[in-house]
Amino acid sequence: MVKKENIENRILFICEVCGLGYIDEQTAAQCEDWCRRTGTCNVKLTSRAVYFPELTRFPRKQE
Fold first, then answer.
1. Is 9 left (phi over 0), alpha (psi -120 to 50) or beta?
2. Is residue 18 within a helix (H) or strand (E), and if so which, with residue range?
3. Which residues form the domain of 15?
């Protein structure tokens, strides 16, 4: 579920998988869905991010 946070005096919606922040909740939800399904970031979605955490790591997929 997308988190709503106040970062740098802006309300942002954060993907709980990769940590990228977006202005709108819908894009953050799309990012989170993509990240959970594929374990990667989508370049079209990340191009709309306005907040980037220091380090993004995806959990390893269990086989």
1. left
2. none
3. 3-46
**∠ Cα 31 47 54 (to 5°):** 75
- Residue 9 CA to residue 16 CA, distance in Å, equals 20
Residue 39 lies in a domain: yes
pTM of the predicted model as reported, rounded to 2 decimal places: 0.83
At residue 63 the predicted structure's pLDDT band, cuts being 50, 70 and 90, is: low
| CB-CB contact of 33 with 20 (8 Å) | no
Q: Considering the domain boundaries, does residue 62 fall inside one?
A: no
Span 31-58, pLDDT tens digits? 999 999 999 999 999 999 999 987 656 6
Number of structural domains found in the chain: 1
